[in-house]
Amino acid sequence: MAGNRTLTIIKPDAFNSGKAGLIVALLEKAGFRIVASRVMQLTEKQAGAFYAVHRERPFFTPLVRFMTSGKCMPMVLERADAVASLRKTIGATDPAEAEAGTVRKLYAESKERNAIHASDSDRMRSGRRGSSSLNPSSSKSRNCKDDYRRAALGGPAGGRGLELHHDRP
Length: 169
Ligand code: ATP
Ligand code: MG
What we know:
Number of strands: 7
Strand content: 15-25%
Structural class: alpha+beta
CATH architecture of the domain at 5-122: 2-Layer Sandwich
Distance between the termini: 14 Å
Bound molecules: adenosine-5'-triphosphate, magnesium ion
Strand order of the largest sheet: 2-3-1-4
Low-confidence stretches: 124-169
Largest sheet: 4 strands, antiparallel
CATH topology of the domain at 5-122: Alpha-Beta Plaits
Order of helices and strands: EHHEHHEHHEEHEE
């Protein structure tokens, strides 16, 4: 059965231009509930590891530069059939090809600066953790051939965070 939690990230273009609230409203209207959320700026190492699956692609370096250019907003979302539903709600990678009403059609600037990330993977484990960083540097992350996402969404200082881990079986 398809899972009911997934990870999304409001990317720096949308966060910096004040679109986070509009995007959250659209996600909630699409039936998603926010389980955890935080605002953070990714380091080069974090963004590079997060998008490691694209390391050989020509857009990798500009993508890492973009993802580290400002604050972003990772969120854990909950809904039935979360991964597929979120992919549908955010639309195609290139906003020019995205369906009307999708997040990217409404708020993305370009194929690179496209407002939001969503996982491709339906496999996720979550657990509590005190770390306050998105931490994709495990050996499993480096070894994974396919889509892999690992994020530790820390809570407030001293509080409990939520760890996410995405990959394909
Ligand atoms: P994401 O993984 O961020 O949810 P996606 O799954 O729709 O996006 P991917 O193919 O995984 O698309 O690409 C990851 C990100 O890399 C894209 O969201 C976009 O920001 C950037 N990207 C992808 N293809 C290109 C391209 N041809 N030129 C520039 N940037 C690109
Ligand atoms: Mg992707």
